[in-house]
Structure formats: structure tokens, C-alpha cells
Amino acid sequence: MARSKKSDISKCIENNTTKVFFLDKNLIKENIEIFKIQLPRKTSLFIKSSEGIYELLQFNEKHRCFFIENTVCSNGKIYVATKFDPLYAFIQLLEVNCKNRAQPIDQLLENKTIIFSDFLKMSQMRLIADQKGSDNLKAFIFNEEKVLKWLKIKFARIQESLKQQKIIFSGSSSLNFVQSTLNNDQIENDDEIAATALGIISEYISLDLYEKLDAFYGISEKSKEPISQKRKSGVNEKEPDSKKIKTEDDDEITKENKKSQITSKSVSKNVAKLEKAAKGTKSISSFFAKK
């Protein structure tokens, strides 16, 4: 086998600077700029484009690399750009700064956070806050009731989106399962979907809002419920048939055991008769022995 040239080997070097992005086609056509913005809940990377604001999510798993043409990228991180609703940012800003008194929006935004106002209408702000003063002032005060109502709508949309993707979270469903089992697995999967949807939202809201949203849907309580309780209804539906099947199987086994016992008794009787008839007779080998 021919040896690789040094020029080829130099291409196959570990590259830590190369990064792998999954972007929308419209973003690829633009000269995008990435911002690192610190919000009260967390610090994230954002992309501003003509289409809106995208959050850049990072996925990093151990022992991963990429082969890109003739190079090896040892940086196994993946960056995925997802559309971001700027109201999530304003919920955090309003809850921290405008819970007791109204403030103009312009005073809340500093440095890079100004990009969120470029894609936000004042009518949207009224979904999570109460406006005070004139429209020109753009002053708002945090309204928890409105925020929870808006979060419930978001929760339902995320939950429906996860269902449409047909993601099986429990991993316990099988084509070989009976229908009742599949129905119970579907219930468990719905609970997992609800927990996942709430987990996604929890990344952008305070612990207080998370606990109130969780209490409304009772997701934590459902997760604490034993599996036996979740499967109870399905087991009861199939219980009469299962008992009948078990009884029939037991009868078959009992019949087979009785037959084997009768057969063994008849064999032992025949052996006893042969032994009795053979008493006093000589072995056939005695006729060929030396006399």
C-alpha cells in the first residue's frame, strides 16, 4: 500500500476552531452576527436576522468528532439555531425590574438586549404586562396572571408539536404489545411529553413561575405516581380473560401429569411380572460356559 504524502497528512489534523452549525436556509444567505446576551434567567447566544431572532443552542456530547472533507474536526459540538420569541426575554426583564412599578421599555434594555425590541410590537407586550401612561412612553408593569395565561398557550403548542413528531419518550412501546398495554404506554408517553414541554419552558422563566405552572398541570405529581397505578385500568380490563387462560393451561398440565402417572404405574407392574417369571431360570450365558 502506498504511503500517504506529508501534504495529505498535514490536512488530516485535529481542528478545534471549526464549528458545525445547523441553520435555516434563509440564515445561510445572510451575513449573520452572533450575540452573547446575559438575561436574568440564563446567558445565551443569539442570531439577529431579517427573519427574526434565533437562539443558538449548543449540544455537546463526549467522544465525538467530525470528518469534514480531508480534515478531522475534534470539536464535536453541534450548534442549532431555533426561532426565539422575544417575549421570553421581556418576561425575565419585567419580573426582575417591573414587578412593583411600571418602567419604560427603553430603560430595561441595555447594550445588546436592544435587539429584542426590534421584533416586538407593543400589542405583544400587553399579553404579559399592563401598560401605564401614554403609548409614546411605552411603560409597562409585570402582570403575573397574564404571563401564566400566555405560558399555558405556549405549553400547549410545544406539547402538540412534540406529539406531532411522534417522539416516544418512555421507549417501552412495542408492536407486539396488546392494545390495552399500548393505551397505557400512550398515557405514560403523554405524561413524558408534558414534562418535556414544561422543561423547555423552564429554561426561560423563574422558579416561581415554573412552580405555579407545574402546580396548574400537576406534572410533578403525575411523575411521582407509581407505574402500577397508571396501568391499573388496563389490567382490570384484561383480567377475566387472563384468569380463564391460566385455568385452561392448568387443566392441560394436570391431565398430562395424570397420564404420566398411569403410564409409570403400568410399566412398573409389567416389570414386576417379568422378574417373577424369570425366577429359577438360568442366564443364557451359562449354556456357553466351560463345564
Summarize the structure.
With 291 residues, this protein is an alpha+beta fold.
Furnish the topology, listing elements before pairings:
Blueprint: H1 6-11, E1 20-22, H2 25-29, E2 33-38, E3 43-49, E4 52-59, E5 66-68, E6 71-73, E7 78-83, H3 87-97, E8 103-104, H4 105-108, H5 122-125, E9 129-132, E10 139-142, H6 144-164, H7 179-202, H8 207-217, H9 219-224, H10 227-230, H11 232-277
Parallel strand pairs: 1-7
Antiparallel strand pairs: 2-3, 3-4, 4-7, 5-6, 8-10, 9-10
Helix pairs in contact: 6-7, 7-11
Please characterize this protein's 3D structure.
- There is one protein chain.
- With about 290 residues, the protein is α+β, with helices and mostly antiparallel strands.
- It has three domains: about 70 residues, Single Sheet (N-terminal domain of TfIIb), CATH 2.20.25; about 60 residues; about 90 residues, no CATH class.
- About 50% of the residues lie in helices and about 15% in strands.
- It is built from eleven helices and ten strands.
- The strands form three sheets. The chain has a five-stranded mixed beta sheet, with no helix packed on it. It has a three-stranded antiparallel beta sheet with strand order 8-10-9. Strands 5-6 form a two-stranded antiparallel ribbon.
- A hairpin with a 4-residue loop joins strand 2 and strand 3.
- Helix 6 crosses helix 7 and helix 7 packs across helix 11.
- The radius of gyration is 37 Å and the shape is flat.
- The protein starts with 5 loop residues before the first helix and ends in a 14-residue tail after the last helix.
- About 15% of the residues have low confidence.
